[in-house]
Specification:
The complex is a heterodimer. Helices cover 73% and strands 0% of the residues of chain A. Chain A is mainly alpha-helical. The longest helix of chain A is centred in the middle third of the chain and has 34 residues. In chain B, a hairpin with a 3-residue loop joins strand 8 and strand 9. In chain B, helix 3 packs across helix 4. Classes of the chains: A mainly alpha, B alpha+beta. The interface between A and B is large, with 51 and 44 residues.
């Protein structure tokens, strides 16, 4: 497949791939790095792509190994940073605030989104992956099963357990 | 109340649910939320929730959770960020490719048979079996293809490749490198722990056998080749799953 076809087929999936990687790494910068690395690996392994397959399913199959590594790095970095703040006896860094003129509804929506992301990132990895792929990247259960190499029933069970957990964590938003 | 008098239970699949047993219906509501109910079960659930305010609230709550999760917007890809890592694009530009915005596609390495001495050093039966399989595959490819251009990709066969290990046996992880290492170093990491010094290494192979079984779950394996100067020239990542013993394995 030449570059034009590569872009034509895979480029439309950029945002959904990024949604998966942000959800799995919990860090937008790390997710962008991982997405670039995924496209590079996809370019190198393009012979293994069957055009009848769903491009996002194939990309996620590549990205999940990279996401696995990045999420470990991010968590380790957060752990080290947390330990450093505790050692210094300092407070956590100030939150980055949006512009003062931003409408309240938009701020509320952003805060709700942050709460959802935080609740999802606290899930065990396999359940987090199912939630992120199904709701953030809008993949069907069948496509997720192919991408992660599990049975559809397993994915449904992960989703159901994750939802039960999220329902408790997001009590105030429901 | 008339409904419960007329019909006190309903069959869904192999389960028979009591109309007033809301905990049973709650399970169904959870399954419905992930699309795990057939049409008949959904109808039965809909009929129940029209009569049971408690389950109706539960269903509504599940629907709100779905809407909440679906309300997270897709992130946008920043215009300033290229599709590929800048370092890869720079390499492509230096190599004079016509389309420098795409990184050079790596070509497969010419295949060489593994040295017998190297194979003899692999004492573990599983490692030896992997080596023999790898050698056979590579020899077959050698015979079928003329030598391709200069190789870039080195790490070729890995075992278990995205596969499964038993969580009650020690784990053996191995990889083949072709062409063999020549002045470069190799590093094997399992869950970010460097296990190179605990591995058997030859210029063609690296084999790691864990002291204890890996805990059940997914484990990230990374193999790096570094040039003499310390720069990483290649990395391969793969996930292996350690699974608890099956019932058959547990049976004496």
């Amino acid at each position: 497949m030449e570059r034009e076809r590569f872009e034509e087929i895979l480029l439309p999936e950029r945002a959904r791939l990024l949604a998966y990687l942000v959800g799995m790494t919990g860090d937008r910068e790390a997710a962008l790095d991982a997405a670039q690395e995924t496209f590079l690996a996809a370019w190198r392994d393009i012979e293994t792509f069957r055009e009848e397959a769903a491009p996002l399913t194939w990309l996620v199959g590549i990205a999940r190994r990279i996401a696995f590594r990045e999420s470990r790095r991010t968590r380790r970095r957060e752990h080290l940073l947390g330990a450093e703040f505790a050692r210094r006896g300092g407070a956590e860094p100030d939150e980055v605030r949006g512009p003062a003129a931003e409408e309240e509804a938009a701020i509320e929506q952003r805060e709700r989104e942050e709460r959802v992301r935080a609740a999802v990132s606290a899930l065990p990895r396999d359940r987090r992956e199912a939630i992120v792929l199904h709701y953030f990247a809008a993949m069907s259960v069948a496509a997720i099963a192919v991408a992660v190499g599990a049975r559809e029933g397993t994915i449904k069970s992960r989703l159901a357990r994750a939802r039960a957990d999220l329902s408790r964590r997001l009590e105030s938003d429901l | 109340m008339g409904y419960f008098k007329r019909q006190s239970s309903v069959s869904i699949g192999s389960a028979r649910l009591q109309q007033n047993a809301c905990e049973d219906w709650a399970l169904l509501i959870g399954r419905d939320a992930v699309g795990d109910l057939d049409a008949g079960a959904r109808d039965a659930l809909a009929a129940h929730t029209t009569r049971c305010p408690r389950c109706a609230r539960r269903l509504e709550r599940e629907e709100r959770l779905t809407r909440l999760l679906e309300s997270v917007p897709l992130p946008s890809w920043p215009d300033a960020v290229p599709l590929f890592p800048p370092a890869a694009i720079a390499v492509a530009a230096q190599s004079g490719r016509r389309d420098a915005s795409a990184p050079a596609r790596e070509e497969r390495a010419p295949r060489r048979a593994f040295g017998r001495a190297a194979l003899r050093r692999l004492a573990l039966p599983l490692a030896a079996a992997s080596a023999v399989l790898a050698a056979a595959a590579l020899l077959a490819r050698n015979a079928a293809h003329a030598p391709p251009p200069a190789p870039e990709r080195r790490i070729d066969l890995v075992s278990p490749a995205g596969g499964t290990l038993s969580a009650w046996r020690v784990a053996t992880i191995c990889a083949a490198v072709e062409p063999p290492l020549d002045g470069e170093s190799i590093r094997l990491l399992v869950n970010d722990r460097d296990v190179t010094s605990a591995s058997e290494c030859t210029p063609n192979f690296i084999v790691f056998t864990s002291d204890e079984p890996l805990p059940a779950g997914e484990h990230l394996v990374a193999l790096e080749i570094r040039a003499a100067g310390g720069d990483r020239v290649e990395e391969k990542l793969w996930i292996v799953t350690s699974e608890p013993p099956s019932d058959a394995e547990m049976t004496p």
